[in-house]
Structure formats: structure tokens, C-alpha cells
Design a protein that fits this description.
Blueprint: H1 3-9, H2 13-31, H3 34-39, H4 41-48, H5 54-64, H6 66-79, H7 81-108, H8 110-116, H9 120-128
Helix pairs in contact: 4-5, 6-7, 7-8, 7-9
């Protein structure tokens, strides 16, 4: 196709709407801090004093990120993108809030965090992924 025809396709509302949605989804992913979480996963587990070894935990978090991607690609036709996106964003919010709550409890009541909530950082980061 000539370049002029391809550029005319960009004027199609469906094309630029899809591009805007794609850019916004990418921005949401960056704004949730996924890069920072992945980069500091070992440090997060080390500072949380998690029950599981921090290197094993970070491997679990990354490995678990693969399965939901495959399942989501299979479920998108059945349940729709909008519903899956809303569920995903709600789970991200809950996971980050619970991780923040864990570190708040750890700061103010370290004995409670150590005895009863050592599992929470791993679960929160797995759900986050």
C-alpha cells in the first residue's frame, strides 16, 4: 500500500481510539510501579522478613506472571476485555494496598507482622503480577 493510504487510516476513529487506549494501558502499567516492584522484589522480601527465601519468592513472582497472561489471552474472547481489565485493575489496587498495609503494620507492630503476616508480601506481589 502507498504511504498516503496508511496515513489516511490513522484518521479512522477506531484506529486512533485503539492507539489511545493502548497508550493509556501502558501508562497505567508504568504508573502502578511494575518496574520498581520487579527491580526491588528481592529487597521487598528481604525487608519484609518473609517466611520464604527472598530469591525464591522473586522467582515465584516472575514465574506466576506468565500463567495469568496465557489465561487472560484465552479468556478475553469469552469474557471481554473491559471486564478483565476492571478485574485486573481492582486486583492491582488491592495487592498494592495490602503490601502497603503490611509495611505499615511492620513499622508500628513488628511482632504482629513477623508472627502472622509473613506470607502477605508474597501473595500481594503474586496478585500484583
Amino acid at each position: 500500500e502507498p504511504l498516503g493510504e496508511r496515513l489516511r487510516e490513522l484518521k479512522n476513529p477506531a484506529v486512533y481510539r485503539a492507539a489511545i487506549i493502548g497508550c493509556m494501558l501502558s501508562a497505567f502499567q508504568v504508573l502502578t510501579g511494575i518496574t520498581a516492584v520487579l527491580f526491588y522484589t528481592v529487597y521487598i522480601f528481604k525487608s519484609a522478613g518473609a517466611d520464604v527465601d527472598e530469591y525464591t519468592s522473586s522467582s515465584i513472582v516472575v514465574a506466576v506472571g506468565i500463567l495469568p497472561g496465557v489465561l487472560a489471552s484465552l479468556a478475553v474472547d469469552r469474557y471481554g476485555r473491559r471486564l478483565l481489565l476492571l478485574i485486573s485493575e481492582a486486583l492491582v489496587v488491592m495487592a498494592l494496598a495490602s503490601l502497603g498495609a503490611f509495611f505499615n503494620v511492620q513499622k508500628h507492630q513488628p511482632e504482629v507482622a513477623e508472627k502472622h503476616l509473613g506470607w502477605l508480601p508474597l501473595v500481594a506481589l503474586v496478585v500484583f503480577m
